[in-house]
Amino acid sequence: MDPYLLLKAICFFLLVIIGIPGNIFILLQFAYIKIFEKKLLPTNIILTVLAMSNFLIILSRIIPQSLNAIGLDDLLNDTECKFVIYTYRVSRAMSICITSLLSCYQCILISPITSNWIYLKQKVTRNVWIIIIMFWIINFSMYPFSILNAHARKNITSTPYTLHLVYCDADFLTYTAYIVNGTFYAIRDCFCVAVMMLASIYMVYILLRHERNMKGIRNSDKGQRRSPEYKASRAVILLVALYVVLFGLDNSMWVYTLTLSNVSPDMNDIRIFLASSYATLSPIVIIITNPKLHHVWKYLFRKRPFQKDIGSHGLVFTISK
Length: 321
Description:
Layout: H1 3-37, H2 42-69, H3 78-109, H4 115-126, H5 128-141, H6 144-148, E1 150-152, E2 162-165, E3 168-171, H7 175-214, H8 228-257, H9 265-289, H10 291-302
């Protein structure tokens, strides 16, 4: 096998091997909590949708890339190409929107106690499902062109404005359609990243300020455990850094491809790997920083006694108990 194809296969299969169990674990654990504890916190609802979106990204994009890398050709027909591309683009858009929603919601939770913030917190908490459904509707309606311009790869000459996506081609036919499509989604992604970064920076500021205020009343023992505020700030920094780095590189390459008349398959492979890595790596961050998930994970893999005396928090992002 060609060394490049071997490296490509290894990289994408690693994403599959890590991403599928991680996202399924989150989905099953929160489903268990919902069934047996009869209540799922808004934060955990958001994380459940994020895990579902990430799982769909792996199925619709990473698995086809992996199969292609080991030499399986002509796997999809025109209809299947339309479905796979549409599923990937909607799922990726949901992953971006839900990550932004998570940051904004946690920002609201830890904001100073004022009438405005309390009102906003109550509104968002009561309507989190409505917000998520609205995101699904918006993203479903934004991608009709993905169905129209996608088809299985054929041994015919394509236009210069065609994206070669594993088994499928997305032909934009004209330069105007190519530029408008790419610019629109790049702006949307940059907007979501900006909102998420602003919310997360404000959240880290509040947490660090709270940490400084609590220093005077805490025991100065060096061996004491890290405060919840410290853990929360660390979790936010990890998620934001992961998101910004991976999707920032992805969108930078996407903007660069807008200047090209014909994008090489290798460049698309790199972009897909970067864009899909978040779907694989974010569950690791979520499991590590979520008390319920972290506790169960340690129980499963370290054989420690299982205890149910965990706080009712969804993520460690919440300050107060």
